[in-house]
Design a protein that fits this description.
The chain is an alpha+beta fold and 297 residues long. It is built from seven helices and 17 strands. Strands 6, 9, 10, 11, 13, 14 and 15 form a seven-stranded antiparallel beta sheet that branches.
Length: 297
């Protein structure tokens, strides 16, 4: 396969065939499940029509069916289509969910819907194709049904980056390797050298670009060697206007090693830049990372 063909295949299919056994991890992730269930319960009203793009096991469609009169659950992986139909048949309200074997890049429901759920989410919006799918969907939907768009779950994404001194010594074996870290817990061997900075806010009610480019400066809070960047992604699943609050999902952090570590003292400034395309590979972001001592001031 030539490089051009590989790039085209990755652009369309990257992240779309998550193995079935991995879905067990998602089903047992209470951080994910409880927050999505709360957001769906808040957003979906009695009798609503709901579309889920990238339905997986059908669990989020099943949550929506508790109130919705009809749910269309679109899934591209034929194995998951069969499994989601089997699971939904075992659950109350599962009969209100129609599982459609189709490509989320192309599908439109047969009638207007009130809510669209799209959990094609990866930290830093890499690998999975949520942005591309939603932007394409909005264009097709407006062409067929007019300008009134449904409510999206999630409704927005906030992304931040943070410099770390990361321990890459594994029983005497030094290996600066890509890592995922659970949110909300302490991580031994990690020193946070500055607070995170927000580098992108994606609002799905507005046109959203797939290109992300950022450069910024951190002031170090202590002496250390910056050898990694932590990427933080918080999904705003729903806005609770009555409580003036949001229902959020902070997903696992992505930690990428820097090609050249930078040693700085407290209060010195670190300049960081990177760029990538949403839905692209982790490597594409990793290759773009640049960090250096900021001596411009």
């Amino acid at each position: 396969m030539n490089t051009l063909h590989e790039d085209a295949a990755e652009n369309h299919y990257l992240g779309q065939f998550i193995p079935l056994h991995y879905h067990h991890n998602m089903l047992t992730d209470k951080n994910r499940m409880d927050n999505f269930k709360a957001a769906i319960d808040l957003t979906v009203f009695e009798g609503a029509k709901v579309l889920e793009l990238g339905g997986g096991t059908g669990v989020l469609s099943c949550f929506a069916a508790a109130k919705a009169s009809k749910v269309w659950c679109v899934e591209f992986n034929p194995d998951l289509v069969a499994e989601s139909r089997r699971f939904l048949a075992l659950n109350p309200d599962g009969h209100k969910v129609e599982v459609i074997h189709a490509d989320a890049f192309e599908y439109l429901p047969p009638e207007p819907v009130d809510v669209v759920i799209c959990e094609m989410i990866h930290v830093a919006m890499l690998r999975e194709k949520q942005i591309e799918v939603i932007e394409g969907f909005k264009t097709r939907y407006r062409q067929r049904f007019g300008d009134q768009l449904p409510v999206f779950i999630p409704t927005a994404v906030i992304m931040a980056v943070q410099p770390l001194q990361q321990n890459y010594n594994f029983s005497g074996f030094y290996a600066p390797i890509i890592q995922f870290q659970r949110a909300h817990i302490e991580h031994p061997g990690v020193i946070e050298l500055a607070a995170p900075q927000v580098y992108s806010v994606l609002d799905f009610t507005q046109p959203t670009s797939q290109e992300i480019t950022w450069q910024g400066t951190f002031t170090l809070e202590q002496d250390g060697t910056v050898n990694a960047l932590r990427f933080v992604t918080k999904n705003i699943l729903a806005v609770d206007s009555a409580q003036s609050s949001t229902i959020d999902w902070l997903i696992d952090y992505l930690v990428l090693p820097l090609p050249r570590p930078v040693t700085l003292k407290s209060n010195e400034k670190l300049h960081v830049s990177f760029h990538h395309k949403t839905g692209g590979s982790i490597r594409s972001l990793e290759k773009s990372l640049q960090a250096s001592l900021n001596i411009s001031e």
